[in-house]
Amino acid sequence: QLYDLMTMAFKYQVLLCPRPKDILLVTFNHLDAIKDFVRDSPGILNQVDETFRQLIETYSCLSAGEFQLIRQTLLIFFQDMHIRVSIFLKDKVQNSNGRFVLPISGPVPWGTEVPGLIRMFNRHGDEVKRTEFTTGGNYVTPQREGSFDLYGDRVLKLGTNMYSVSRPVETHMSGASKNLASHAKENIAPNPLAKEELNFLARLLGGLEIKKPGDSETGFRLNLFTTDEEEEHAALTRPEELSYKVINIEATQ
């Protein structure tokens, strides 16, 4: 499952690269993260820096066409992989069928212009006519190009820790209880992905060997909250129509 997560995360990064050469910036983001892990180990840090230098030496001189060939080769490898990842589904960047949703707005690739203008030239290279058209998205020009040096601002966020972005905690009860009650009927239909995750959890629990110390009762207590206090608070503020009893999972079956 970890391999599947890494595979789909990298596919997402390659797919969303604004231009083929930015694959190198994604790789540098990966290596920047590794350098941060080993910053207290000078020996390993030197090895990572040496890897950096070799990457710069090997790939920085490639043409846009060669980078495009690398990108196409990677995407051919990933094209039949449509594994659903909860964080992508939650952020609406992946559909329920496992395919990624490509944005139609945002910054355009470095070195290109915001779409919306057609220029026509004569055979002498002189501009003779301009035509504007309405685009389907809101495009902006990037402020600067990401750094391809050993140290620098990569600008591109693809390849950085996708879990570091602050996300709203679903257990936080915001707004009036009546708003939650109004959505209660919408949430009656079970999420098939959630059911599969619970089934997987049950299989994991069923595969564990439990040694029974004396006559003490065995079992599992699954806390889906960060702290017990948070769980108690959610239980107190949860509307009555959304409350459920304890669910027992028979893992041995």
Automatic annotation (TrEMBL):
Membrane-spanning intervals of the chain: none
Domain of life: Eukaryota
Pfam families in UniProt: Oscp1
Record's GO cellular component terms: cytoplasm; plasma membrane
PANTHER family, A to Z: OXIDORED-NITRO DOMAIN-CONTAINING PROTEIN, PROTEIN OSCP1
Protein name per UniProt: Protein OSCP1
